[in-house]
From TrEMBL:
Domain of life: Bacteria
Name of the protein this chain belongs to: SURF1-like protein
Compartments in which it is found: Cell membrane; Membrane
TM ranges: 219-239
Key word DNA-binding present: no
Family listed: Belongs to the SURF1 family.
Keyword Membrane included in the entry's annotation: yes
Keywords: Cell membrane, Membrane, Transmembrane, Transmembrane helix
Length: 251
């Protein structure tokens, strides 16, 4: 049976579409394997012994050195620079929108400070500028947490003011603002204790999400591409079967 030009074009179009969708599906599976390896590295880093202040990457501005320490647990001693506390707006936790509270910690025995994401504070429904009072002890404290990258950014207007409440915080610009070198990592605080070992209650919420490499997203994308491949093949077979039946009917 001789195929028409239309049938040939449909055949090659179907083959091309199947090849494309299949390749995209396997590409997403390959991305998922890469993310699995990344997630395994994150978990392994988190299980290593906590870093002390002197072990943190000591080269300011060398982000590559700091990346190797990301997701490590830390146990740091230092003093809060409470007057430099910043509230990052439009941050969600527990299904509510509020602020992430960040305070620089002057590391003991070092000239650098490290930014600590201390916890989440609710927003006042009547007055968004009314902030929760966060108890911040003076003197030496011990902060336990894990290392993460700089705080994530949200959309903001170009002329956003540099006050206590901000949309975003750039580490390099903040270092110039407080006139102190800042390490290129952030500590996600889990707990704080005074120099005598007594725990500090500050009223902040710390329901931090575990590190997520986006692994399941790639499996979902792969499933969609393979499903599209099956749909294309099914439609092609259905239309061809319908065409053959139509041609087989006596005129």
């Amino acid at each position: 049976m001789k195929l028409s030009v239309r049938a040939v074009a449909l055949l090659f179009g179907t083959i091309f579409s199947l090849a494309l969708t299949f390749s995209l599906g396997f590409w997403q599976l390959d991305r998922a394997k890469q993310k699995e390896a990344l997630q395994a590295a994150v978990v392994a880093n988190g299980e290593r012994p906590p870093l002390q202040s002197a072990e943190l990457s000591g080269v300011v501005g060398k982000d590559e050195l700091a990346k190797a320490q990301l997701h490590r647990r830390v146990l740091l001693r230092g003093s809060w620079l409470s007057e430099r506390t910043v509230f990052l707006d439009n941050r969600a936790m527990g299904g509510r929108t509020g602020f992430f509270v960040l305070t620089p910690l002057q590391l003991e025995g070092r000239s650098e400070v490290v930014l600590v994401q201390r916890g989440w504070s609710p927003r006042d429904a009547l007055d968004r500028t009314r902030l929760q009072s966060v108890p911040t002890p003076t003197g030496l404290v011990t902060v336990s947490g894990r290392l993460i990258a700089a705080p994530s950014k949200v959309y903001e207007f170009a002329a956003a003011p540099l006050g206590t409440i901000r949309q975003n915080l750039d580490l390099q610009a903040f270092a110039q603002e407080i006139d102190k070198p800042i390490l290129p990592v952030t500590v996600l605080q889990l707990a704080t204790a005074r120099s005598d070992g007594q725990a500090v209650a500050d009223g902040l919420l710390r329901e931090w999400q575990p590190p997520d490499s986006g692994l399941h997203k790639h499996y979902g994308y792969a499933f969609q591409w393979f499903l599209l491949s099956a749909l294309i093949l099914g439609l092609y077979v259905w239309f061809q079967t319908k065409r053959i039946r139509k041609q087989a009917k006596p005129s």
